[in-house]
């Protein structure tokens, strides 16, 4: 099979439809019971780095978008303690069921709420959260939807809050990653229901929606760069970090 490398040969991303969302819900529900076995060995290093960068504190209100099987939710809930709060959003009922069992067995149920919700919009009020965490979720959205998601994150994040994202990155591909990145994008473009994520220009997208990046690191997973970055609300919208 010949894999095209010329950017002009890539398919243009199309807007996300209700059928796309429904297909994603079914897919993640089907794999929810084996999700950790399929992904955890690869994703754990980057996710754990993101949680460390998030640095959840006692009594904070924190949102995780795309909580999957609940590993991040439990970690954050233990950090915020009995007077904090963690809201998790995911589109899959199967993932919520698996995550709910993990939350219950970890004795953090009192501070955790898990909701099935497609975003945007985010079901929360303005300036509600001290921090927001996303791991291997932002790159699932089409480019135009990513921008809307980031604007919603700005809306629900407190002016002093922080946003930590873990995502496959295409913005600074070195030579050793270039072929792997192009191959992965080709697979995503041609088989989106199997390869549902793809590398994105993490820093460019985040800065483009008014965030300032205060810390960023890159790790390699599956032969691809994954960026872990912590952002603050920048000066573009008049709010101070």
List the keywords.
241 residues, alpha/beta, Rossmann fold, 7 helices, 7 strands, disordered N terminus
Layout of secondary structure:
Elements: H1 18-31, H2 35-54, E1 61-65, H3 71-80, E2 85-90, H4 93-105, E3 112-116, E4 129-135, H5 143-156, E5 157-168, H6 175-190, H7 202-208, E6 211-221, E7 224-233
Parallel strand pairs: 1-2, 1-4, 2-3, 4-5
Antiparallel strand pairs: 5-7, 6-7
Helix run count:
7
Largest sheet, in brief, is: 7 strands, mixed
Amount of beta strand: 15-25%
Rg value: 17 Å
Compressed to H and E, one letter per element, the order equals: HHEHEHEEHEHHEE
Give the total of beta strands.
7
The structural domain count equals 1
CATH topology: Rossmann fold
Overall average residue pLDDT: 80
Strand order of the largest sheet: 3-2-1-4-5-7-6
Structural category is: alpha/beta
CATH class: Alpha Beta
The CATH architecture assignment turns out to be 3-Layer(aba) Sandwich
Question: Rough shape?
Answer: globular
User: CATH superfamily, called what?
Assistant: Vaccinia Virus protein VP39
Helix content: 25-40%
